[in-house]
Amino acid sequence: MPLPVLPNDVRAAHARIAAHVRRTPVLNLRPGAFGHDGPVSLKLEFLQHAGSFKTRGAFNTLLTNPIPKAGVAAASGGNHGAAVAYAAMTLGVPARIFVPEISSPAKIEAIRRFGADVVVGGPRYAHALVACSAHVARTGALAIHAYDALDTITGQGSVAVEWDERGPPLDTVLVAVGGGGLISGMGAYWRGQVKLVGVEPAGSRALDAALEAGGPVDVEVYSIAADSLGARNVGPLVHEICRAAVNRVVLVEDPAIVQAQRLLWRDFRIAVEPGGAAALAALISGAYRPASGERVGVLLCGANVDLARLAEIV
């Protein structure tokens, strides 16, 4: 059955945004890395503009839709807001970003640095989304959803096209999941070619719960990675794509995420936020155990880390 997003849609988004995003590098590691006897490739997407893959979806949405006089608006735990703010600044569009109280100061500072108005209110992402929706209804601004929207999904999926072009062949890719826009786009592009494994914090399992229930359901969110992987509900579009294109979801505990952050800094001098380290946490903790010789890709997706907190960890 055809999905609402096809490989050609993702390729078109890749071409559309190419002039505005970085082609982030791939670090290819020899067998033996992280205790695995096969090759491991790290996609360094945390080096993307504004510190995360979400810049891809933001540019794709802005370049696909007419922009009203009121500009654009988004609800975000931080990374999506920074991405929308950066894309809007680049294209000369006004932006207002609604963030929850749990957003890290580093992410709020980044949004403001990129010139957007920031509204902080409500304890969780869901509350920020309600406030954003009210603003859109009142002003007519273009809403840019963080994950459950076609333009967002196809834009995020462009990272898979780029990885295909510049990286070695892969059997499996581990992808951190918050709302599921990234893994949906990558799954729509790689369906049937590369095994996709979603990685969620045990305390923030919106996709795992949706696949288990047969449809999107609300979940409680309590995780060190909640400001980037803290969606309560993945939404119907993400669920439809992921049930067909994602092979499995594994859960990781917060201590494993912290250990992955520590390891990335110790061995590679890579500083990433908890959400950015979650995919690697699945590999080093054994939540995902690859077969012997399996060619594994790990997406490191977010750099907007609180450096004071990282200093405590490492």
What does this structure look like?
The chain has 314 residues and is an alpha/beta fold. The chain has 2 domains: 7-53 and 149-313, Rossmann fold; 54-143, Rossmann fold (3-Layer(aba) Sandwich), CATH 3.40.50.1100. Helices cover 45% and strands 15% of the residues. The chain contains 13 helices and 10 strands. The longest helix has 17 residues, at 150-166. The termini are far apart.
CATH topology of the largest domain: Rossmann fold
- Classify the helix fraction into a percent range: 40-55%
Which structural class do you get from the secondary structure elements?
Answer: alpha/beta
Strand content: 5-15%
Number of helix segments? 13
Q: In total, how many beta strands?
A: 10
Q: Major sheet, described briefly?
A: 6 strands, mixed
Stretches where pLDDT is under 50 for at least 5 consecutive residues are none
Order of helices and strands: HEEHEHEHEHEHEHEHHHEHHEH
- Provide the residue-averaged pLDDT: 93
Ends distance: 47 Å
CATH architecture name of the largest domain:
3-Layer(aba) Sandwich
Order the strands across the largest sheet as they lie in space: 1-2-10-7-8-9
CATH C-level of the largest domain: Alpha Beta
Count of discrete domains = 2
Rounded to the nearest angstrom, the radius of gyration is 18 Å
Principal-axes geometry comes out as globular
Provide a short characterization of the protein structure.
This protein has 314 residues and is an alpha/beta fold. Helices cover 45% and strands 15% of the residues.
